Amino acid sequence: MKKLAQIQNDELRKMQKIREELRIQDIEKLRRARRRQNEIMARIQAAIVQIPKPPTNRNLKAIEAQKMLKKKKEAEEAFREEQLINRLMRQSQQERRIAVQLMYARHEKEVMRQNRILREKQFQERREKEFREALDREAAIQKQENLEREEEIRKIQELHDQIAAERAEARYRKHYHMCQEIMNQILDLVTKTGEYREITNRLIPNKLMREWKEFFFAGYPLYEKASIDPLPSEPTTEQLLELEKQNLLDDNDYEEYKDMAGEWSPPQSSGLKAPAPNNNVLGYVVADCCVLGKLYYSGKSTCLTHLTQGFCVETLLQEALQAYHHGEMEVIRTVLILNKKKPMKNIRY
């Protein structure tokens, strides 16, 4: 707005200056016209021929006629001068009017040009803004689509890993339960045989042994299963405490069986020796000294020979390659992954 007002003030000053110049030019033209008229009158007066005066009677009439002629000429000259002045004034006013119109038209043209430039600039800025907004929208949509695609891929991968883990765990549990069932059946068969030999103190008849084998191969139990009440989904504190006590007793029974102590201790007449008690602190020192050759233990070379034969690098490498080709490495890895969450109990060093 300030720039437009300044432009208008400059145009008005130019118009006033032009008007002043036109007025000065008109005055100068008027002066030149009067000067020229005076020169013409002076030449006319100089060209007048002096005629002798007529007689008295004729002089009066001639004087009156001259006066009338002079008045007439003066009136004509005044009329001519007035017409000339009016014509010059009309010309100057018309020129002044044309100049004003030209200046106004030029001003209007400049204003229209400035408005057109401003409007085109506004249109250009609006188009650039809309283009930038469209690019930003497309970038935001593309980014959102990428995030959604990554989230979907992550969910699919998590679902795939979860399904794979569940399948591996189900396969592991299936094999574990299968092996456990087979081991239980073997234990039942062994226990059944031992009970029969202990009660009858005789060998088992072939027919009975074949029947037991058929039951074993068919997967039928040799003993009737006892009814055990399972724990509820939300056991009480007393039930959990009783379960912990039972687990503790089972662990103690297993330790006694492994160490051949308590009820599992062999009779003195049998000549069997119980295994040496495990030393949790210094149990590894003996093996370490045997391997390193420290102190005065005997049999170091023999021990190392057996270790070399049992744990040769080539033998271990060959076994590892065979396990890899048979797919045993994957099974072991799966079992290790599944057993990571299970606490290790009763580990003795």
Automatic annotation (TrEMBL):
<keyword id="KW-0175">Coiled coil</keyword>
<protein>
    <recommendedName>
        <fullName>CPC1/SPEF2 domain-containing protein</fullName>
    </recommendedName>
</protein>
<dbReference type="InterPro" id="IPR054517">
    <property type="entry name" value="SPEF2_D5"/>
</dbReference>
<dbReference type="GO" id="GO:0002177">
    <property type="term" value="C:manchette"/>
</dbReference>
<dbReference type="GO" id="GO:0097225">
    <property type="term" value="C:sperm midpiece"/>
</dbReference>
<dbReference type="GO" id="GO:0007288">
    <property type="term" value="P:sperm axoneme assembly"/>
</dbReference>
<feature type="coiled-coil region">
    <location>
        <begin position="5"/>
        <end position="47"/>
    </location>
</feature>
<feature type="domain" description="CPC1/SPEF2">
    <location>
        <begin position="88"/>
        <end position="221"/>
    </location>
</feature>
<dbReference type="Pfam" id="PF22946">
    <property type="entry name" value="SPEF2_D5"/>
</dbReference>
<dbReference type="InterPro" id="IPR052634">
    <property type="entry name" value="Sperm_flagellar-bone_growth"/>
</dbReference>
<feature type="coiled-coil region">
    <location>
        <begin position="132"/>
        <end position="169"/>
    </location>
</feature>
